[in-house]
Amino acid sequence: MGNLQNISHIYRGLLKNSRAFASFREIELDIVYSDLSKYISYDEFILDPMSGYGGGMVFLGGKGYKTTNIELNPPAYFWQLLINPQNTQSIIKIIKKLLNKKIELPKINETFSLTDNLFSDIAINHIKLLFSIIYEISNKNKILSISLLLPFVSRFANYVKSPTNITHFKQGGLCSYLGWEQDFHSYLEFLSNRLSKDYISYKQQEHKNILADIFQVKLSEKYRTFVTSPPYPNYRDYSKLFKIENYVLDNIILNNNTNFEMMIGSNNVSGKTFGTIQSEKANLFLTELLAKAEKLKVKNKKSCSDIKTYYHPYFAQYFYNIQEAYRKLDSMLTNNSIGYIVVNDNITRDIIVPVGASICDIFNSMGYESKDLDTSQISHYGNIGRSATRMNSKHTRHILKVWKQ
Ligand SMILES: C[S@@+](CC[C@H](N)C(=O)[O-])C[C@H]1O[C@@H](n2cnc3c(N)ncnc32)[C@H](O)[C@@H]1O
Predict the structure, then answer these.
(1) 354 C-beta closer than 6 A to ligand 1
(2) Coil, strand or helix: which one is 33?
(3) Tens digits of per-residue pLDDT, 261-317?
(4) Which one of 3.40.50.800, 3.100.10.10, 3.40.50.150, 3.90.870.10 gives the CATH number of domain 14-403?
(5) Which band of pLDDT confidence, cut at 50, 70 and 90, is reported for residue 381?
(6) Ligand 1 pocket mutation pick from 81, 228, 264 by most atoms within 8 angstroms of CB
(7) Which atom of ligand 1 is found nearest the CA of 24?
(8) Cβ–Cβ contacts within 10 Å for residue 371, how many?
(9) CB of 73 closer than 6 A to ligand 1?
(10) Are 18 and 79 in contact (CB under 8 A)?
(11) d(Cα 375, Cα 359) in Å, to the nearest integer?
(12) Cβ(133) to ligand 1 under 6 A?
C-alpha cells in the first residue's frame, strides 16, 4: 500500500482515520448507541441533518441502521458518496480499471508550475482530462467520478497551507507535477483497500446522501430519530477547509457555485441581520461578552472594539442560526421523535460558549424534554500549531438526548 504524503491533510485524515475537523468520535457514538438501541427499530431511517463526512452513516450503518444524511458543503457530501456502501462495488471497479496498465493517464509535459492562482492553466487542463477519463471508465457516472477524483485534486494546486490555521491557505506558489502518477496510484490503492474493509463492517447498506442547505431542503417523509452534531462557533469559514476542492467543482468540472451564506458558524458576519434569540443561556453569554468589552474599554481598546464589532455579532448570528436550523429540523420530525446531539462548548475571551445548554433551551422551547447523557472534558481535534491553544484548551463535550412524547 502506497503512502499518502501528497494528499491534502484533510483527506489524509479521512482516508487513514475516517476523521476530519469536528467529526464524530466512536466513543461518542457508542454512548448514543447504548441509549438509541433501546428505542429504534432497524427498519426506520435515522436522520443527520448536518452530516459532515458521514460519521453517523458509517457508525449507525455498522450497527444495522439505515440513515439519511443532509450536508451543505459539496466536498463533504462527495466524501459521503465515496464511503456509502451502495457505491463501494462501482468505485472499486472504476479503481481497478484506472490501475490497469492499459489505461493511459493524461501526461503533463511540464515538471512544475509557478503561479499566483490556485491552479495553473496546465493543471486546469489536466484535471479536465483526468476527469473525462474517469467519467468514461465509470460509464458516465458523473457523481461517482467526482467523488473519486476530488480527494486528489489538491495534488495539482499551487498553494501554501498555514501551519497554524486549518482553514487558511495561501493561494499561489510552486506545484511540482513530478511523480503525480505514482501518487494517484497510491491514493487509488489506499482507497480501494479502505473501502473493501469498510464494506464488510456495514451491516446495513441503505443510506441516502442529500446535498442541501437544511433551511431549504424538502423531505418527502418525516423522521422519528436523529443523530447529529452542530457546526461549531470557532469563527472560521468552514467552506475554506475545502477551498481547493470547491474551486475545482465551481470552475473546472461542474460550474456549481454553492451558496455558503447559510453555512452555520462561518465567520462572514458583516452586514448580516438576525432575529430574536430565545435561549436564555445564549443571551446570558452574549450579555457577558459585551460586559467583557466594556471592561476592556480603557485597558485594551482594540480588544474592546473587536468584541463589539466582530465577536458579539458573530456569536449572536451563530445562536440565531442554530435556533432556526433546529426549528426547521423539528418540522422534519414526527411528534414522538427522539434525537441525540453531540456538542462541544468551547471558550472565547475566557468565557464558556454555552452551545450545549442553548441547544437544550431551543429544544425545550419546542416542547421537547432534554437530558445530558454524558459530559466530559476533551481537547478539540483539528487545530494545528501553538496559536490555536486558546481555542484548543478545555472543551466540554455533551451528549444530549432530546425527546417528545
Ligand atoms: C460538526 S459537522 C458534522 C460532522 C459529522 N457529525 C461527522 O462525523 O462527520 C457540522 C456540519 O454541518 C454542515 N452545515 C453547516 N450549515 C449547514 C446548513 N445550513 N445545512 C446543512 N449542513 C450545514 C457543515 O458543513 C458541517 O459539515
Answers:
(1) no
(2) helix
(3) 888 988 776 556 678 999 999 999 999 999 999 999 888 899 999 999 989 999 999
(4) 3.40.50.150
(5) very low
(6) 264
(7) 8
(8) 11
(9) yes
(10) no
(11) 15
(12) no
Distance between Cα 265 and ligand 1 center (Å): 10
Is the C-beta atom of 341 inside 6 A of ligand 1?
A: no
* Pocket flag, ligand 1, residue 70 (CB < 6 Å): yes
- Count the neighbouring beta carbons within 10 Å of the beta carbon of residue 103: 12
Cα 72 to ligand 1 centroid, rounded to whole Å: 7
The pLDDT, as a whole number, for residue 319 is 95
Residue 284: predicted pLDDT? 97
Per domain, the residue ranges of the chain are: 14-403
Q: Tens digit of pLDDT for each residue in 192-224?
A: 999 999 999 999 999 999 999 999 999 999 999
Q: Is the CB of 123 under 6 A from ligand 1?
A: no
Q: Which residue has the cell 463501494?
A: 88
Q: What gap in Å lies between CA 371 and CA 352, rounded to an integer?
A: 20
Ligand 1 binding pocket includes 55 (Cβ within 6 Å) = yes
Map grid coordinates 482553514 to a residue.
167
The three cell numbers of residue 103 are: 489505461
- C-alpha span between 331 and 328 (Å, rounded): 5
